[in-house]
Design a protein that fits this description.
The protein is built from 12 helices and 12 strands. It is α/β, with parallel strands linked by helices. The protein has one domain: Alpha-Beta Barrel (TIM Barrel), CATH 3.20.20.70. Strands 1, 2, 3, 4, 5, 6, 7, 8, 9 and 12 form a 10-stranded parallel beta sheet that branches. It has a two-stranded antiparallel ribbon with strand order 10-11. The longest helix has 15 residues, at about 20-35. The radius of gyration is 19 Å and the shape is globular. The structure holds iron/sulfur cluster (SF4).
């Protein structure tokens, strides 16, 4: 059985990534079979519970308020709306709901209380609940854990070196600190990144070094391909070749053998054959539904047809880790601390982000 290592070097990971394709696929598929059922793939649904108007400047993101995109902003969804969407997702085969809010960080108050209620509601539907709400304190992580949160998503996005070319409103270390706060609770960690943002292969390897060095490694690692959205600083970047995605998935599987590797954004640009190779290389989760937060995603019926063709079965919820118990708000041990944490704000200039911002001012 291949063991979990936390001491991978960038060069070792690059050597794996650059192996001849057939060798890479064989090694990744063999490790995948040691740790996972190769015919089971988790289907998750991503819900944007608060869309747009984000103060951050992530160069890939159409939800950043400073860029001019076609995204329609929405206030925080009601708990009943979220419940209805979760029930629909469950009926179409999803075992996990991931709720995303376009926030820089979580703030204690009525909106966070509403999110905690959403977590309680979905956990009681016997689905895995994940949230991605931005930076988070330890107390906030504990409150989410009590509500029954299964996973918290906080992507590293790319390598530490390339991070400062993508985002200027927070630092790579803030990401690591939030993941650390999540780890102090019983909530599992979901953290991955995006390829095809103009990074070097060394950056892809650097991101995997950072993720694999975490101890324990994240239970879930989403691998996204950039979906270039008009109005964002990355609008003109060409999509990556499917081979890059297959290599990235395979390498992730080899360096993080026990992790759930998620084939995430960018699937509309991939053929079924390409996705099948990603599953063979170790991807064992997809996001279902026609939208991934705000970018297009294959229709759920198309995905079920692909599962039928490939003989894949949707994974049942709580297969890896048992269901967390929901503590009601009235019995909670962790109350709001009204913290005002000092997350960093490097504020350096990223030329393409500045250009997109100027362009948006002229358009608005
Ligand atoms: S990726 Fe998240 S934090 Fe960054 S701009 Fe988009 S919504 Fe905001």
């Amino acid at each position: 059985m291949s063991r979990v290592r936390h001491d991978w070097t960038k060069q070792e990971i690059l050597d794996i990534y650059n192996k001849p394709m057939m060798e890479l696929l064989y090694e990744a598929a063999s490790i995948h079979r040691e740790h996972h059922d190769p015919n089971t793939v988790q289907v998750s649904t991503l819900l944007s519970i608060k869309t747009g108007g984000c103060p951050e400047d992530c160069g890939y993101c159409p939800q950043a308020a400073r860029y001019h995109t076609d995204i329609e902003g929405n206030d925080l969804m009601s708990v009943s709306h979220v419940k209805a969407q979760a029930l629909r997702a469950k009926a179409s085969g999803s075992s996990r709901v991931c709720m995303g809010a376009a926030w820089r960080n979580v703030k204690d108050g009525p909106e966070f209380d509403q999110v905690l209620e959403m977590v309680r509601t979905i956990n009681k539907l016997d689905m895995e609940v994940c949230c991605t709400l931005g930076m988070l304190t330890e107390n906030q992580a504990q409150r989410l854990a009590e509500a029954g949160l299964y996973a918290y998503n906080h992507n590293l996005d790319t390598s530490e070196d390339y991070y400062k070319d993508i985002i200027s409103t927070r630092a790579f270390q803030d990401r690591l600190d939030t993941i650390d706060n999540v780890r102090k609770s019983n909530v599992t960690v979901c953290s991955g990144g995006i390829i095809g943002m103009g990074e070097k292969l060394e950056d892809r390897a650097g991101m995997l070094v950072a993720l694999a060095s975490l101890n324990p490694q994240p239970e879930s690692v989403p691998i996204n391909a950039l979906v270039a959205v008009e109005g964002t600083p990355m609008e003109d970047i060409e999509p990556i070749a499917i081979w890059d995605m297959i290599r990235m998935v395979a390498t992730t599987r080899i360096v993080m053998p026990e992790t759930q590797v998620r084939l995430s954004a960018g699937r509309t640009q991939m053929s079924r054959e390409g996705q099948a190779m990603c599953f063979f290389a170790g991807a064992n989760s997809i996001f279902a539904g026609d939208k991934l937060l705000t970018t297009p995603n294959p229709d759920v019926n198309e995905d079920m047809e692909m599962f039928r063709l490939l003989g894949l079965n949707p994974q049942k919820p709580f297969t890896k880790i048992s269901q967390p118990k929901t503590v009601e708000a009235s019995e909670s041990k962790f109350q709001s601390l009204n913290e005002k944490p000092k997350w960093s704000r490097p504020g350096h200039t990223i030329e393409r982000n500045e250009l997109a911002k100027q362009k948006a001012k002229l358009t608005d």
